[in-house]
């Protein structure tokens, strides 16, 4: 793609702060509004500017200006593409809002995504991080996806095994895949099993349902409870800019978990299928004194220490400074390394 022959859906010198939920300043040299998969083929090929993919910008830290081509994935559409005795099959465009997809499926009477209500971001971003909440993750409801290979311009179809889903992880996070602008996810298909079972084991969700005196919740009641819990705990980016959870929950060897528990008997620990132990990053941050504490114009949110917030007018370097300060204190106190969840542009 030579600069002189840019298609008309490619914009130049685009301000990005309103396109990411942390609202950090920065401009992109080029930004393509992708509303149909065939536009991607026009931009494919080797060489050319550095490429990166953007959805709703809810998991992005802008370090400053982006000198390259941002592909803003805005492909819409959601439909039931099939149904059999076992399941409903629902396909959605990568640019669809995730929460609106969840709400729409529930309104149609197709349960299965309710625990994932109120998660920010787009449908196309959901498999990359294998978003999850309250004991359910996208991989549990995923059938396949379509993506454009940005080197060849060809469409690829990936099934569940090819995506190599793990805890908040997938093949797309590996180098040379989606995050490097190599594969642009265009559509995702979900399988929603008809044999539905409520997943209400997490303490916050169970407490909210108990508070509402709902003993046998429907899928829609679970979604409503999830929304109630999440909106109490998490800041609205329109009011207080943020990128959701800022650090991954660390998964450590059982021996490390034992060592921590002997020094800190209250440390929350969750045994994983592989024998390792998942720790709550928010708890580690809170115990390190960062809950509700600011550094410059950024801080760790007072109601949920895992969320880094922009108090107003912050720049990317301030986010990086706070991230490093939190990492250093958690490392010093617990000997645990925290890794950031958002993508740094
Ligand atoms: P929370 O419910 O306070 O839980 C904190 C940590 O404890 C998480 O690591 C969670 O595991 C774990 N945990 C709690 N109860 C558990 C149980 N019964 N069994 C196993 N693990 C348990 O977390 P929160 O910060 O308020 O977030 C609520 C939910 O939203 C969590 O599931 C969290 O992971 C999810 N969330 C996801 C994303 C994302 O996908 N990017 C972003 C924000 C929050 P899990 O992480 O395995 O659930």
Automatic annotation (TrEMBL):
Alphabetized GO MF terms: FAD binding; UDP-N-acetylmuramate dehydrogenase activity
EC number, UniProt record: 1.3.1.98
Keywords noted in UniProt: Cell cycle, Cell division, Cell shape, Cell wall biogenesis/degradation, Cytoplasm, FAD, Flavoprotein, NADP, Oxidoreductase, Peptidoglycan synthesis
Pfam families hit by this protein: FAD_binding_4, MurB_C
GO biological process entries: cell division; cell wall organization; peptidoglycan biosynthetic process; regulation of cell shape
Pathway membership, UniProt: Cell wall biogenesis; peptidoglycan biosynthesis
Keyword Cytoplasm: yes
Start and end residues of each FAD-binding PCMH-type domain: 16-195
Catalyzed chemical reaction(s): UDP-N-acetyl-alpha-D-muramate + NADP(+) = UDP-N-acetyl-3-O-(1-carboxyvinyl)-alpha-D-glucosamine + NADPH + H(+)
Compartments reported by the entry: Cytoplasm
Catalytic site positions: 168, 245 (proton donor), 341
Primary location group: cytoplasm
GO cellular component: cytosol
Organism domain of life: Bacteria
Keyword Protein biosynthesis among record annotations: no
Alphabetized SUPFAM superfamilies for the sequence: FAD-binding/transporter-associated domain-like, Uridine diphospho-N-Acetylenolpyruvylglucosamine reductase, MurB, C-terminal domain
Cofactor(s) annotated in UniProt: FAD
Broad enzyme group: oxidoreductase
Function: Cell wall formation.
Sequence similarity: Belongs to the MurB family.
Protein name: UDP-N-acetylenolpyruvoylglucosamine reductase
Species annotation: Candidatus Accumulibacter affinis
Protein encoded by which gene: murB
């Amino acid at each position: 793609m030579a600069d002189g022959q840019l298609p008309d859906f490619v914009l130049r010198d685009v301000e990005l702060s309103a396109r990411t939920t942390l609202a950090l300043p920065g401009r992109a040299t080029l930004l393509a509004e992708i509303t149909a998969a065939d536009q991607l083929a026009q931009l494919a090929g080797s060489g050319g500017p550095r490429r990166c993919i953007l959805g709703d910008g809810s998991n992005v830290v802008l370090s400053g200006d982006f000198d390259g081509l941002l592909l803003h994935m805005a492909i819409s559409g959601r439909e039931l593409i099939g149904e059999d005795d076992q399941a409903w099959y629902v396909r959605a465009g990568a640019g669809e809002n995730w929460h609106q997809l969840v709400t729409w499926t529930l309104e149609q009477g197709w349960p299965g995504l309710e625990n994932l209500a109120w998660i920010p971001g787009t449908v196309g971003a959901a498999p990359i991080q294998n978003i999850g909440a309250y004991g359910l993750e996208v991989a549990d409801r995923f059938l396949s996806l379509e993506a454009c290979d940005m080197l060849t311009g060809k469409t690829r179809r990936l099934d569940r095994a090819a995506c190599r889903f793990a805890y908040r992880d997938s093949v797309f996070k590996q180098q040379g895949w989606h995050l490097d602008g190599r594969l642009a996810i265009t559509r995702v298909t979900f399988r929603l099993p008809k044999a539905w079972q409520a997943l209400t084991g997490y303490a916050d969700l169970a407490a909210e349902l108990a508070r509402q005196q709902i003993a046998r919740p429907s899928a829609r009641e679970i979604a409503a409870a999830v929304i109630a819990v999440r909106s109490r705990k998490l800041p609205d980016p329109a009011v207080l800019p943020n990128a959701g959870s800022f650090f991954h929950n660390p998964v450590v060897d059982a021996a490390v978990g034992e060592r921590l528990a002997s020094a800190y008997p209250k440390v929350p620990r969750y045994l994983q299928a592989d024998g390792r132990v998942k720790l709550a990053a928010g708890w580690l941050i809170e115990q390190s004194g960062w809950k509700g504490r600011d550094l410059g114009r950024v801080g760790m949110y007072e109601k949920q220490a895992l969320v880094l917030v922009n108090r107003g007018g912050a720049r990317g370097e301030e986010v990086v400074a706070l991230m490093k300060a939190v990492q250093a204190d958690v490392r010093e106190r617990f000997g645990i390394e925290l890794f950031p969840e958002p993508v740094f542009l």
